[in-house]
Amino acid sequence: VLTLTSGGCNTLHLAAHGAKHVASVDLNPAQSALCELKVQAIKRLAYEDVWKMFGEGKHERVAELFETKLAPWLSQGSLNFWSKKLHYFQDGLYYHGAMGKVLLGVYWFQILFGYRKKFLKFCSAKTLEEQRSIWTSLWFVRIFLHMPAMVFAVM
């Protein structure tokens, strides 16, 4: 299977679900470095450490784990990348890169427009129907839902 690396999620999903061979490519070397780091972390770290690094995006012992358990197994390109960017796991992995900027923008949108509580409620909703109800109650969503399709075609 040939897939876009994109941080490694699709690559790892395909491998975990029985693909005999997965070739992963990406124009952004950071995505390949992230995928490689995830693979080595899954192979060499305890579940709790993998979760902290990639589930929560922060790990207080990342430098120690990187040096002792991950770095020896990384390619030179990934080693160079993560040696410079390891601080991502101290600040919060998911607030770096282009998607990190989007997440920060969404966060500040929530704060500035008073939607933080609704977004948290949306994320903890128990059913899809509850999520729909919360989502469609937001003014900016209602505006987009009622715009003619032609407006989006012009954009």
List the helices and strands and how they pair.
Elements: E1 2-4, H1 9-16, E2 23-25, H2 29-44, H3 47-56, H4 62-70, H5 76-85, H6 88-91, H7 97-112, H8 116-123, H9 128-136, H10 139-146, H11 149-154
Parallel strand pairs: 1-2
Helix pairs in contact: 2-5, 8-9
Describe the structure.
With 155 residues, the protein is mainly alpha-helical. The chain has two domains: 2-100, no CATH class; 114-154, no CATH class. Helices cover 67% and strands 4% of the residues. Strands 1-2 form a two-stranded parallel sheet. Helix 8 runs antiparallel to helix 9 (128-136). It starts with a strand and ends with a helix. The model has no long low-confidence stretch (mean pLDDT 92).
Structural descriptors:
single chain, 155 residues, mainly alpha, 2 domains, two-stranded parallel sheet
Order of helices and strands: EHEHHHHHHHHHH
Quickly count the domains. Answer: 2
Spatial shape = globular
The largest sheet has its strands arranged as: 1-2
Low-confidence stretches: none
**Separation of the first and last Cα atoms:** 35 Å
Q: Structural class, from helix and strand content?
A: mainly alpha
- Tally of individual helices: 11
Rounded mean pLDDT is 92
- Cα-based radius of gyration, to the nearest Å: 19 Å
Q: Main sheet, how many strands, which sense, barrel? A: 2 strands, parallel
**Residues in helices, as a percent range:** 55-70%
Number of beta strands? 2
β-strand percent reads under 5%
